[in-house]
Amino acid sequence: MIERMQKSEPFIVGFDPLHALPRKERGQRLDAYLSFLQKRDGEPNLQTKTLSEREGFFRQIDAAPVRWQGEIDRDSFHKNLNVSLTEKVDPKIVWLLAAAKSNRVEQYGVELDLKLKGDHFGEFAHGQHMTFIDLEEFYHTRILRDCCKVFDLEFNIDPPKSFTRWFASMVVRSPFRARLVTALCGELFGCVAFQVLWESTTIFADQPEVMRRLQLLVREILIDELGHVAFGHAMLGPTGLVAVRALYPIIASYFLKDLPEFWILAGGKEKFLERVSAFDLASNSNLWDLSAAPA
Ligand SMILES: [Fe+2]
Ligand SMILES: [Fe+2]
Known about the structure:
single chain, mainly alpha, Ribonucleotide Reductase, subunit A, globular, disordered C terminus, binds fe (ii) ion
């Protein structure tokens, strides 16, 4: 049994990420988030781009490989990897394309950020939060690759499609305050997208070991992204959050144009966008009971 922190910390639940908090509470939440990160991730190492606790998690994953038994439509996966999905394909392939294509966005953003920041990667004037957050984003690309590896699917990382590429580049190039706004929009989309990916692992229920492995991997990203939203929310005051409220439904609908796999998995574009508008960390607190299977 692979061990991982199972329960949430109280900092994360109980608030709507689009409503501003009093200044004092913002500070308290940032402190609580940092201690959560230290416990969950262990020691950060900017040279090796590693987090000690997460390395332990991956050692356990690597020591207990899980593989899909039987056929999977590999042709359809590779054929649709570089194009917008317009044909009807097996839901398993939709899920794997969602994982592979979101991996590209993560990888593109994190590599560009690293290139632009150089030796300042992971630096943050107000605490060590960004060191953890930047390193967590590094791990997301590995996690999404590991999901595809369960099916022996390897793929080349090309830059993402049009809007997602422009947006990732705009976020990492934005000055700090503006970046908090744009990044929070991206993190909110990411929360809904990875919730959908986590819930729809039931597509693989006929091989329970595979389903559980994918749940274990995706929830690792999901917890990180919920934390990134909590961070962005605590960093922004009322004006910043007004900007996020105005921008993020538009950004989400553009993201879905490049990544239709996510709305297909969610049961329709409208359904996905409804979840984006209604997103609330408090109403998602059930996700923090990580021993629970997706509903
Ligand atoms: Fe991420
Ligand atoms: Fe994130």
